[in-house]
Specification:
five-stranded mixed beta sheet; 27% strand
């Protein structure tokens, strides 16, 4: 259930969920604010939390306001698309064969039927992004699980609108955002480590961040790159999950 309330100068969408901690997210392009809160959390506590985060919220609202509105992508020749933090020029090739994507030094070559609409072109490119992530993640887990001292029993990749990753602690399953394929490789490693650390500590508390410092001392620069790399306007939340 959700409702919108006014807290100071902020209009805030409040969503009550079966969770233990509060989470605030700022959405582009207009800087909409959404706060997820535990079901029985008193409204006064919610208001105090939002006010304590007001400067952070306004900073990201101002950042979004300063960005140019992204043009709607039509998946046509000449557009810029990102892979591993690098911009590539999209080239669309009419092809009667199986749809496919081929990467060169500067170009993403999309081979599709001449009549393929934008949504079909997007699906082919997203399938390619998904396949690339699934090639990279096993090696990352093999490297980082012994360092973190925690093992994920299952993992997957899916579209996420508000998070870079999630961790189901009971099932020991992590999910990673498809959008990470567009980010620098260190960002993917950061989110993998972040979710593995949740297998030690559920909350984003001092112990959690202390473990991040221990296992991945440069995690802050990778977290910053999730926001700084110009792959499109992404919502800004408290963290990966």
């Amino acid at each position: 259930m959700s409702k919108t309330i006014q807290i100071g100068s902020l209009s805030v969408e409040v969503v009550r969920k079966a969770i233990r901690t509060m989470r605030v997210t700022v959405y582009p392009p207009a800087g909409r604010v959404r706060v997820a809160v535990p079901l029985r959390l008193p409204e006064e506590t919610l208001r105090e939390f939002v006010l304590s985060r007001q400067a952070w919220i306004q900073k990201h609202q101002e950042r979004f306001a300063a960005l140019p509105l992204p043009a709607a992508q039509t998946y046509s020749t000449g557009e810029t698309h990102y892979y591993q933090g690098r911009p590539y020029t999209l080239r669309v090739h009419a092809s009667a064969g199986r749809p496919r994507v081929a990467l060169t030094d500067e170009t993403l070559n999309l081979h599709v039927a001449e009549t393929a609409p934008p949504e079909e072109r997007a699906a082919v490119l997203n399938a390619w992004y998904r396949a690339r992530l699934k090639e990279q993640i096993p090696a990352l887990l093999a490297y980082w699980e012994p360092i973190v001292g925690a093992r994920a029993d299952a993992w997957g990749v899916k579209q996420m609108k508000t998070r870079w990753g999630t961790c189901n602690i009971g099932a020991r399953r992590i999910w990673l955002s498809l959008e990470l394929a567009k980010k620098p490789p260190g960002c993917l490693a950061y989110v993998v480590v972040h979710e593995l650390v949740h297998l030690h500590e559920r909350l984003h508390n001092a112990r959690f961040w202390g473990l991040m410092d221990q296992f991945m001392p440069d995690w802050r620069q990778h977290k910053a790159a999730l926001q700084a790399n110009p792959t499109g306007q992404q919502p800004t939340g408290d963290d990966a999950d």
